Amino acid sequence: MPPGDDQGQKNIREIMKELDQLVGLQGVKKLVGEIHAFVEIQRRRQKEKLATEPQVLHMIFKGNPGTGKTTVARIIGRLFKEMGVLPKGHLVEVERADLVGEYIGHTAQKTREQIKKALGGIMFIDEAYSLARGGEKDFGREAIDALVKGMEDHKDNLILILAGYRHEMEWFVETNPGLRSRFPIHITFPDYTTGELLAIADLMLQKRQYRLSAGARDELRLILEETRLNHIHSGNARLVRNLIEQAIRQQAVRLVRRGHVSREELMTITREDMLQARQSNPSNR
What is the pLDDT of residues 178-222, one digit of tens each? Predict the structure, then answer.
């Protein structure tokens, strides 16, 4: 749909609203808003035949697993499609094994195949720093060269997002001086706070038509706070998802043996369910 089209503008507003409704990520939302504004103003300047800045929109996402990186990448793909930056806006997720081959020439071929799948959209490379971890004879470097060539050959039809842990991604960019200039947009995804993780749990439960009892909420908060003390990378939504799914199963086991169960009971996760979920979740032992 043309960027100036009324329906296109409505879709853009809906996508930005969806981004805004994500829990936390205030810095991420601000930066995506700036990118959206920049692209839109360059489009308007071009229409008025004014000088425009080159749009280099390849990005580096830095943060721990489960902090929203893939979710935001999908939203950006849809946003860029509606703005006319990308024709398709789909997301192709790849990792080292999808790009690196086993013999000379194999890596370039595998990488080109993945680039072909991503044309018109975004290629999202998770744990991208693993491409530079091997020695001189490692084929990961060949993958980086093939990706750089793909970026040049398809500069109006492909956006790359490299993602991974913050320190590793900063090290990765330093290992290849050409990467910094090609990836001018760096977005840091912070760990979620305990309050944000509880809000994420509420959203997950609402979608499934469940809710936490007061005791279950207290227990979940306790699990999250204890996990934060014991694990470096604990502020992520995957832990919450695992606990919620396990608690729902524990509730089912508790209720299935009973005869009549009320609507309220079918919807409520109790402290007992959450305690059982905690014991069943390996990451909390």
Answer: 777 888 889 999 989 899 999 999 999 999 999 999 999 999 999
What parts of the chain have a pLDDT lower than 70?
1-5, 133-138, 231-235, 281-285
pLDDT at 135: 57
* Sequence-separated (6 or more) residues with CB below 8 Å from residue 29: 19, 20, 22
Question: What pLDDT score does 43 carry?
Answer: 85
Q: How far is CA 191 from the centre of its chain?
A: 13
- Residue from 61, 57, 59, 60 nearest 85 by CA: 57
Q: Which residues contact 134 (CB under 8 A, 6 or more apart)?
A: 140, 141
pLDDT of residue 65: 86
Instruction: Work out whether strand 159-164 and strand 59-63 pair parallel, antiparallel, or are unpaired.
Output: parallel
Q: What is the SS3 assignment for the chain?
A: CCCCCHHHHHHHHHHHHHHHCCCCCHHHHHHHHHHHHHHHHHHHHHHCCCCCCCCCCCEEEEECCCCCHHHHHHHHHHHHHHCCCCCCCCEEEECHHHHCCCCCCHHHHHHHHHHHHHCCCEEEEECHHHHHCCCCCCCHHHHHHHHHHHHHHCCCCCEEEEEECHHHHHHHHHHCHHHHHHCCEEEEECCCCHHHHHHHHHHHHHHHCCEECHHHHHHHHHHHHHHHHHCCCCCCHHHHHHHHHHHHHHHHHHHHCCCCCCHHHHHEECHHHHHHHHHHCHHHC
Q: How many CB atoms lie within 10 A of CB 162?
A: 26
